[in-house]
Amino acid sequence: MARNQHGDGTLYYYYDGGSKIYFASLITGLIGIPNLHQRKNHKKFFMECMKLSGVDDKTLFEDRYLLLPAHYGVFNASGLKLRQFWDINELPTIIYKNESDYFESLMEIFSNAVKARISVYDEWTSTQSDGLDSAALNAVICNDILPKNGQLKAFSYIPTLIDNSISTENRPAIEEMSKAFPSLRITYITRLSGLCDYIDLYTSTYGLLRIQLTRGTLSV
Fold it and tell me: Domain boundaries in the chain?
C-alpha cells in the first residue's frame, strides 16, 4: 500500500501486530470489522477541535492509522514495515527571470496542493482566523475550487476573556475576508455558541461518533 507525495486521496489501515492487516480509502471501511474493537481516540478528537493535532498518522479511532503522503507499507511474514520514499528537501532549486513568474508558479502549486487535500462529505467547511494561513487557503477555495453559487462555511473561535467579556480583536480581519469573498460564510464559536455546528464536521465524517452537549459538558 502507498500514497503519492502530493497526498491525493487517503489510505487508512489497521494492523493487529501479527498476521492481519486491513486497509481502505475511507476510515469507515475499517469500522465494524468483526471481532475488532471500536474504541474512540478521545485525545485526538479534542486535539482536532482545538486545531492542535498537527500532521500525524493518528485518527479518531484507536489503532486505525492514516498512511502519510510519500509513504508506503510492505506487509509480509515479517510484519508491516513503513517507509518514506520522497522528501520535499530533495527538490531542486528553480530560478525564474522575474518576480511575476515566481508568483504564477507559486499560485499554481498552492492551488493544486489545496485541491489535492480537500475532502468534502456534505457541506463545504473550513476554519477561519485572522492569520494568513487560513485566509490564503479559503481564498483559493472560494476563487478556484468552490462550485458555482456554492458556499464555504468557515468557523472562527472567539475567546472569552477573564472578565467573561468577548474578545473582538481578531474580528476585523475575519470580517474583511467575508466581504472580499461573498461565498465565505462565517460562524463564530464562543463558549458553546456555534460549537454544535462545529462538532457536526466530525459527526458527519465519522458517523459512529456520538457527541452530546449536556449543561455545558461535552461528552463523546
Answer: 12-41+58-84, 119-219
